[in-house]
Amino acid sequence: MSVHLQGSLFDQADGPSLGPLAGLRRTVLGDGAWTDLLPGWLGGGDELFAELAADVPWRAERRQMYDRTVDVPRLLAFYGAQDQLPSPVLDEAREALSSHYADELGEPFVTAGLCYYRDGRDSVAWHGDLHGRSSHEDTMVAILSLGAPRDLLLRPCRGGDTVRTPLGHGDLIVMGGSCQRTWQHAVPKSAHARGPRISVQFRTRGVR
Ligand SMILES: O=C(O)CCC(=O)C(=O)O
Ligand SMILES: [Fe+2]
Hints:
Strand order of the largest sheet: 2-3-12-9-14-7-6-5
Radius of gyration: 17 Å
CATH superfamily: Alpha-ketoglutarate-dependent dioxygenase AlkB-like
Bound molecules: 2-oxoglutaric acid, fe (ii) ion
Protein name: Alpha-ketoglutarate-dependent dioxygenase AlkB
Shape: globular
Strand content: 35-45%
Structural class: alpha+beta
CATH architecture: Sandwich
Number of helices: 5
GO molecular function, one term: dioxygenase activity
InterPro entries: AlkB-like (IPR027450), AlkB-like_sf (IPR037151), ALKBH3 (IPR032854), Oxoglu/Fe-dep_dioxygenase_dom (IPR005123)
Largest sheet: 8 strands, antiparallel
Keywords: Dioxygenase, Oxidoreductase
Helix content: 10-25%
Number of strands: 14
Domain Fe2OG dioxygenase: 108-206
């Protein structure tokens, strides 16, 4: 067996690992909103993806849309501040984010919302995460993307061009400042998505 192969087997045995957050790059969107992006923050995420897909108690939801009740086009799970996250590496991720953004955010990330996009037909429509304090205060929502690449779209509420950010396996994007109030985001359906995607959204207390 070659040294190289031994090396790669060793990496796999190590499981998922998070890189340094020093590589985050900020894009100022305007109106007080920004995003930070770090492609490949999590390495070795295949096993984590499989674990989450199998072990998280995914819920299918239905929502009232005008006079009809429709299926929410993705599966959901929510972990509150007191809940055990479904993998230790997600605890590690939440801690790393909380410490990296401590000064700027002034409070830790506490909750984790998870979405499971079964294939390219699953999506999330244009919205801001506006339930709770985020309706009137700046906040941050940090998203770890796993599995099939999908685009996250952002558009200003007052009208203007849409910003498209492709998110791949292990990528991190943080929406910050006024982003939830002054911009909207969406993950549109995709004819190209090959396979499922899981997103993990870390939020602060009292924000949904
Ligand atoms: O899947 C994503 O990356 C975004 C999910 C989202 O916007 C939400 O759950 O509020
Ligand atoms: Fe959202």
